[in-house]
Design goal:
heterodimer, A: about 110 residues, mainly beta, seven-stranded mixed beta sheet, four-stranded antiparallel beta sheet, 11 strands, globular, B: about 110 residues, six-stranded mixed beta sheet
């Protein structure tokens, strides 16, 4: 069966420091991969999505970037964090055999201080 | 693009009562409508979904109805239990869209014992 792993689960970073959140999917190949952010409140905002290695689409202008160095690996990065980058970050995937069904990881809590 | 509105934003029910959450969508081309449950500090989990070729789908205490003409769909939870307390999200998407889902703003459901 397919599983999605996301880490770290929690981190506290000072303003201006770099960020790297990592996500991997197991049990499938060539998934579509996504990064969402969930700020205070409940809304889910799509940040990036990728349909293949090296293919990244950005949904909103921001201080973050994403990369997909391997088929089942998706990384969210920042060179210099801002206070406004604080939030709950969720990695997600869909597979070719699952239609539009999207599956989320457990999320990463980022607090920028 | 697609716009999904979800109501109510908060809902409190007594244990054993039913809960109904409603969503409307704007793009008549949308044909896939999942519902997610998100517990505190965790990623959203798919609980039920419906495609546009059916009007209703049930899974034990959970059911979803879809009215394509009116462009709205609803989640029904019967015999609610305290463990049903969570934030629920509806979403809509079009088959084949790599950009995937447009989410509603979420409903905080509280089941009172």
């Amino acid at each position: 069966s397919q599983t999605i792993h996301q880490w770290p689960a929690t981190l506290v970073q000072p303003v201006g420091s770099p960020l790297s959140l990592e996500c991997t999917v197991e049990g499938t190949s060539n998934p579509n991969l996504y990064w969402y952010r969930q700020a205070a409140g409940r809304g889910l905002q799509l940040l990036f999505y990728s349909v293949g290695i090296g293919q990244i689409s950005s949904e909103v202008p921001q201080n973050l970037s994403a990369s997909r160095p391997q088929d089942r690996q998706f990384i969210l990065s920042s060179k210099k964090l801002l206070l406004s980058d604080s939030g709950f970050y969720l990695c997600a995937w869909t597979g070719t055999g699952s239609g539009n069904t999207i599956y989320f990881g457990e999320g990463s809590w980022l607090t920028v201080v | 693009g697609e716009n999904v509105e979800q109501h109510p934003s908060t809902l409190s029910v007594q244990e054993g009562d039913s809960a109904v959450i409603k969503c409307t969508y704007s793009d008549s081309a949308s044909n896939y409508f999942p519902w997610y449950k998100q517990e505190l500090g965790k990623g959203p989990q798919l609980i039920i979904d419906i495609r546009s070729n059916v009007g209703e789908k049930k899974d034990q205490r959970i059911a979803v109805t879809l009215n394509k003409t009116a462009k709205h769909f609803s989640l029904h939870i019967t015999e609610t239990q305290p463990e049903d307390s969570a934030v629920y999200f509806c979403a809509a998407s079009m088959k084949g869209s790599a950009r995937q889902l447009t989410f509603g703003s979420g409903t905080q459901l509280t089941v009172l014992p």
